[in-house]
Design brief:
- Keywords: 2Fe-2S, Iron, Iron-sulfur, Metal-binding, Nitrate assimilation, Oxidoreductase.
- This is Rieske domain-containing protein.
- Pfam families: Rieske_2.
- With 242 residues, this protein is α+β, with helices and mostly antiparallel strands.
- The chain has a domain of 163 residues: Rieske [2Fe-2S] iron-sulphur domain (Rieske Iron-sulfur Protein).
- Helix content is 12%, strand content 30%.
- It has 2 helices and 13 strands; from the N terminus they run ββββααβββββββββ.
- The strands form 2 sheets. Strands 1, 2, 3, 4, 5, 6, 7, 12 and 13 form a 9-stranded mixed sheet that branches. A 4-stranded antiparallel sheet has the order 8-9-10-11.
- The longest helix has 16 residues.
- It is globular and about 55 Å long.
- It starts with a strand and ends in a 10-residue tail after the last strand.
Length: 242
C-alpha cells in the first residue's frame, strides 16, 4: 500500500455511515478499468495500470468498522443455543477419512454460541448501508479496493478459500504487538481473515490472499480526485498477442 498525499483530509462522518465525499452513504458500484496501457517501472519492477477508482470515493475503513460495530451491537448478545445433555454413550463413532477426498469442508463451529455469533455477524453485514470495499476490473483481473484514512489497499476480489466476494465482508484495524496496526478484511461467508498489507491469513485455514502494490496519480484535493494505479509484476500473455 502507499499513503495518499497529506492533502487528503479526514472528514468526520455526518451519520451512521458517510462516504469519503461527505453526505449520505455512497453505494459502491463495480468500476471499469481505464483504457490507458500499462507502464513498466524499472525501479519497482512492476507494470503500473491506471484504474477509474478514485481513492476519495472509497469508503473509509475506520468509519465503516465503527458503523458495523454499532449495527452488530444493536442486535444484542447471542442467545445460548439449546443443548442436549451429554452422556458417555453419546460419544461419536470414529469415521475413517474417505480416500481421494475433494476440497476441504468449510469450517463451521460445532459450538451453538459460535454458530449464533457467526449468524449475527452475517446479518449485520447485510444491514450495512454500503459495502466495505469497491470491486474493479483491471487488466482482466477482478480486484478489491479498500481505504483506511490515507492508505489504499488492493487485493484479489474473491476469497482464496471458496471464492466469496471480499468487498461484501468486514474490514477493520487491529493492534499487533509486533507489527503495530494491521488492516484486515474478513470473508463474509466462512469468516477467513486476511492482512490487507501482505495477504497473510490472520484467522482460518486457507491459502493467503493475493495483494497488489498501489500508488496514487492525478491527486487534486480541490476537485477531490486521487486516482488509483495498481502494480502487477507480470501481465497476462494475451496482452502481448497482436
Amino acid at each position: 500500500s502507499r499513503a495518499l498525499p497529506q492533502l487528503l483530509p479526514r472528514r468526520r462522518s455526518k451519520g451512521p455511515m458517510s462516504s469519503a465525499l461527505g453526505g449520505t452513504a455512497w453505494q459502491p458500484q463495480a468500476a471499469a478499468a481505464a483504457e490507458a496501457p500499462p507502464v513498466w517501472d524499472e525501479a519497482s519492477g512492476r507494470f503500473w495500470c491506471r484504474t477509474r477508482v478514485n481513492a476519495y470515493e472509497l469508503p473509509d475503513g475506520c468509519d465503516w468498522q465503527r458503523a458495523f460495530r454499532d449495527v452488530l451491537g444493536a442486535q444484542g448478545p447471542p442467545r445460548a443455543g439449546r443443548r442436549l445433555q451429554a452422556h458417555a454413550s453419546d460419544a461419536p463413532a470414529q469415521i475413517p477419512p474417505r480416500e481421494g477426498a475433494g476440497r476441504r469442508l468449510a469450517r463451521f463451529p460445532s459450538d451453538p454460541d459460535k454458530r449464533t455469533a457467526r449468524a449475527a455477524h452475517t446479518a449485520a453485514l447485510l444491514q450495512m448501508p454500503c459495502h466495505a470495499g469497491v470491486q474493479a476490473l483491471v487488466q482482466g483481473r477482478a480486484l478489491a479496493f479498500f481505504r483506511f484514512g490515507g492508505r489504499v489497499f488492493a487485493s484479489e476480489a474473491r476469497c482464496p478459500h471458496q471464492g466469496a466476494s471480499l468487498c461484501e465482508g468486514e474490514v477493520g484495524e487491529i493492534e499487533d504487538l509486533v507489527d503495530g496496526r494491521r488492516c484486515y478484511v474478513t470473508c463474509p461467508v466462512h469468516k477467513m481473515q486476511f492482512d490487507l498489507a501482505d495477504g497473510s491469513v490472520l484467522e482460518g485455514s486457507c491459502p493467503p490472499l493475493r495483494t497488489y502494490g498501489v500508488r496514487i496519480s492525478e491527486a487534486d484535493e480541490v476537485r477531490r480526485v486521487a486516482m488509483v494505479e495498481v502494480g502487477f509484476e507480470a501481465l497476462a500473455s494475451e496482452y502481448f498477442v497482436g
